[in-house]
Amino acid sequence: HLTVYRQSTDEYVEMDVERRMVENPTVEYEMLENKAGYILLSSFEEVSSEQFKKAVDDLTAQGMEKLIVDLRNNGGGVVQAAKDIADYLLPDGKTIVSFKGKGIDDSVYTSDDGHEVDVPIILLVNGESASASEVLTGALKDNAWATIVGEKTFGKGIAQGIFNLPDGSGLKLTTAYYYTPSGECIHKLGIEPDVTVELDESLKNKVTVTEEEDNQLQKAISILQEEKNDAEKNCFQRDVK
After folding, report:
1. Which residues are catalytic?
2. At 230, is the pLDDT very low, low, confident or very high (cuts 50, 70, 90)?
3. Is the pLDDT of residue 23 over 90?
4. Which residues neighbour 33 within 8 Å (Cβ) at sequence distance 6 or greater?
5. Closest to 219 (Cα-Cα) out of 184, 191, 194, 238
6. Are 68 and 39 in contact (CB under 8 A)?
7. What pLDDT, on a 0 to 100 scale, did the predictor assign at position 238?
8. What is the pairing mode between strands 158-164 and 147-150?
9. Sheet of 121-125, strands arranged across
10. From CA 66, how far away is CA 229, in angstroms rounded?
């Protein structure tokens, strides 16, 4: 039971509010033209991997033939979510990420969930794609499972741990560096895209950017279409022979 003061009317209002868990939506998705699935992943939270898997499964049921995952302005979050998403996309036996640090055992994570998404994939990234976003980007790039399009990522290749203190407070410390499957530590370096495309200057200060205006997204769509045309051409040539 709450009493709330509203300054605009100079009055107190009493209300009953239900306290419950709220699941923050971190995934938005839609089917674009030519059976191209589009997934916007705004952050990596504990619920993100399940939301992402449901999006992929729904798009697949709709006949998805290619996939664009948008990690632009995604500053990261729960690394486990990034590992789970990478595992869902990659075939089994692929290295996702490794960690090395002080006071912890070195660890290597590999894909083993028995699931893969075998369609052409593009990751859209920019200078604000950081941390867990870079775990996913590095995993798919180094395993040649996706084409990275956009701008160089932020470059946060460290992991933190929280240590509880006797008085109830806590101390957050950097405990490890993480490495992409190729063995590269991207901290303060970032990940270079396969295809560099800067966002048009006129769009950088806009609150909302339409699909048609978004030159980075349009580039991703055109790359997927070129790959499809090349694949169809190769099939035709094999049939002729």
Report:
1. 131, 142, 156
2. low
3. no
4. 221
5. 194
6. yes
7. 58
8. unpaired
9. 27-31, 36-41, 66-70, 121-125, 147-150, 195-196
10. 13
Residue with tokens 């030519």: 34
Here the tokens at position 11 are 């009055």
pLDDT of amino acid 214:
97
Q: How far is CA 197 from CA 34, 39, 108, 142, in A?
A: 22, 19, 32, 20
Specify whether the CB–CB gap between 44 and 76 falls below 8 A. Answer: yes
The amino acid at residue 89 is: L
Residue with tokens 């290597």: 108
* pLDDT tens sequence across 93-146: 999 999 998 777 789 999 999 999 999 999 999 999 999 999 999 999 999 999
Q: Three-state secondary structure along the chain?
A: CEEEEECCCCEEEEECCCCCCCCCCCEEEEECHHHEEEEEECCECCCHHHHHHHHHHHHHHCCCCEEEEECCCCCCECHHHHHHHHHHHCCCCCEEEEEEECCCCCEEEECCCCCCCCCCEEEEECCCCCCHHHHHHHHHHHCCCCEEEECCCCCCCEEEEEEECCCCCEEEEEEEEEECCCCCCCCCCCCCCCEECCCCHHHCCCCCCCCCCCHHHHHHHHHHHHHHHHHHHHHHHHHHC
**Residue 114 contacts residue 162 (beta carbons within 8 Å):** no
- Whole-prediction pTM value? 0.86
49: tokens are 């991997």
Looking from the CA of 4 toward its CB, the CA atoms found within 13 Å total 10
Half-sphere exposure of 68 (CA within 13 A, CB side): 29
